[in-house]
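Exercise 7.
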Amino acid sequence: MSKALLKEIVIKGQRKKFYLRGDTVVYDPQAFNLKEGDRIERLLQKLPGVDRDANGNLSWMGKPLKMILNGQDNDVATRFLPNIAAEAVENIKLYKRRNGRDSLQYKDGEQVLDVKIKRECMEKCYGYAILWGQT
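Solution. The predicted structure, written as tokens, is:
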């Protein structure tokens, strides 16, 4: 073997854009080849099956869809969520919620798009607090 024979190496790979985990669709944001500085709004436009109408309402396969943050309903956070950098997203899960014994705050079977933000990005955006006390 000689270095002169090897001028160029090209490696190609492809990540799965989504996979199924039970009845949950899990989207991998790193598979969508977004540019640096793109926001979650741009990522949502690329998700297969997810559409946004003229009023800004999300749907999946024609059925209404609600966006939540890290598994929690938080109207303020989800309102500003599309403006967060897409690189902060760990994954996005699409599933139907089921009411548990301890939570009756939403409709059973409601479809949600659960955006999970990386822990280090959450700390960067919101900071963290330590509570210390003495009795």
